[in-house]
Amino acid sequence: MAKTKIIIAGDTLPMLCNYDLFSAGDAKALFGDRLCELFASADYRVCNLEGCFTDSDTPIEKIGPAIHAPTATIKGIKALGIDYATLGNTHSMDYGVQGYRDTCKTLNDNGIGYFGWGDNESSVKSYVTIEHGGRRIVLYNTTERFENAPEKDRPGVNLYDEYRVLGEINALKESCDYLIVFYHGGIEGTHYNSDIMRRRFRRMADNGADVVISQHTHAIGEEERYNGAYFLYGQGNFCFHFRPQVTPLLAEGLVLELDFGDDGFTVKPNRILRTEKGCVYDDKQELEAFYARSKTHDALIAGDEAAAKEFEEGFGRDCANWMTTFFWALRGKNPTDDEKRASLSPSEFAEYLKASYSRSHLLGIQMFLRNEEFNEVGNQILSDLLRESDTKEKTNDN
Questions:
Q1: What does pLDDT average to over the chain?
Q2: CA–CA separation, 311 vs 47, rounded Å?
Q3: So what's the architecture of 4-302 in CATH?
Q4: CATH 3.60.21.10 domain span(s) along the chain
Q5: Is 287 strand, coil or helix?
Q6: DSSP state, 382?
Q7: In angstroms, rounded to a whole number, what is the distance separating the alpha carbons of residues 68 and 15?
Q8: How far apart, in whole angstroms, are the C-alpha atoms of residue 29 and residue 397?
Q9: Who wins on pLDDT, 187 or 230?
Q10: Which ranges in 41-161 belong to alpha helices (H)?
Q11: What is the pLDDT of residue 173?
């Protein structure tokens, strides 16, 4: 039988700098001839839509960017030949119910399938099934929790709940030949996966997943082969120009080329590079760093202490980029912070924030983050405080 080729792209959404090209459906200007040819060679094409398609200008209340694209820009996605979009991610619910409805309509009107979210917590569409060449291939999407949880009367995404997700993966594998999991999670802006991610991916493979892909990190991570399964820890961006200027690790990504046959499957990572308005195929295919990290990762798995230390140090360096944001979120109201932020360099401001916490403070914060009981307690306290704040604001408005 003929093989089934599936092309998978990472984080994608039209942005202000390329609205014109997406609205015109000019795939070649956005992606170049070589990349368009690669997508055209596939039987099916999938990407992660890192946001929603809506003409609304009313985002939800949240910390961090709210991301959307005008509905007219869907033309560029369609011109690339995308068949399915994953929507279980960080930003798909940034414009609430209206953004959800507009995105569903926009994709439906353009013949693009989608999965990873649904109308409410009991009707989330977590997967789609492809039937081709006499084989069944399931695409499954789940995500870590952000401001995207479904409720009884509100749409949302397929949140990663390990007991439920592993049960669904196990049941789905009973009725298909191959199962691909799109996992939206991990640490943004890092080349290195964590021990939590490794255990999570292995559990999914043990329950039937053949391929597990981590998106959301916006950076290329490592690959691993485990008991016949293939893991990609961090696919990197495809076409996601959220920041005008980016560091090199955010300006590249991998497009996965998967060929499924009757006796197994092959995986080919294709490196792509960000351009001013889109992305193109890397003619040099400079993947040495990716394969070197993957080799170090394999050594870590095998128990190599030097590899474990190298990995831990790299992961720590990348996580440190979040330190200012982390400490600022814990500060509460502090009138001197604005003055210090204006007068100090970013690194000096980070050191200033760090110095505000004693060792006992740091141990207390770590307890709330590490311990399941205190993690739940902290979240409940914050939810109650936010509701209290919302009630006060409504009372004052009246």
A1: 93
A2: 29
A3: 4-Layer Sandwich (3.60)
A4: 4-302
A5: coil
A6: H
A7: 8
A8: 49
A9: 230
A10: 74-79, 96-109
A11: 98
What pLDDT was estimated at residue 222? Answer: 97
Q: Which two tokens stand for residue 46?
A: 């999938």
Q: Tell me the two tokens of residue 236.
A: 């990197």
C-alpha dihedral, 19 to 24 to 28 to 29, nearest 10°? -50
Segment 364-383 mean pLDDT: 82
Is 21:36 a contact under the CB 8 Å cutoff? no
Q: How far is CA 111 from CA 74, 84, 104, 139, 227, in A?
A: 11, 9, 11, 17, 36
Spatial distance between the Cα atoms of 331 and 325, rounded to a whole number of angstroms = 10
Q: How far, CA to CA in Å, does 151 sit from each of 51, 100, 124, 155, 156? A: 19, 14, 10, 7, 7
Q: What is the mean pLDDT of residues 185-195?
A: 90
The rounded distance, in Å, linking the Cα atoms of 163 and 176 is 21
pLDDT of residue 321: 87
The token pair at 291 is 């394969």
Q: Token pair of 45, please? A: 């094409």
DSSP 59: P
Q: What is the pTM of this model?
A: 0.92
- Beta-carbon neighbour count of residue 390 at 10 Å? 11
DSSP string, 105-139: HHHHHTT-EEESEESSTT-EE-EEEEEETTEEEEE
For residue 246, the 8-state DSSP code is -
Under 8 Å between Cβ of 112 and 84: yes
> Residue 198 and residue 64: Cα distance in Å, rounded?
27
270 phi/psi in degrees, rounded to 5: -115, 120
Asked if residue 142 lies in contact with residue 126, where contact means CB atoms within 8 angstroms, the answer is yes
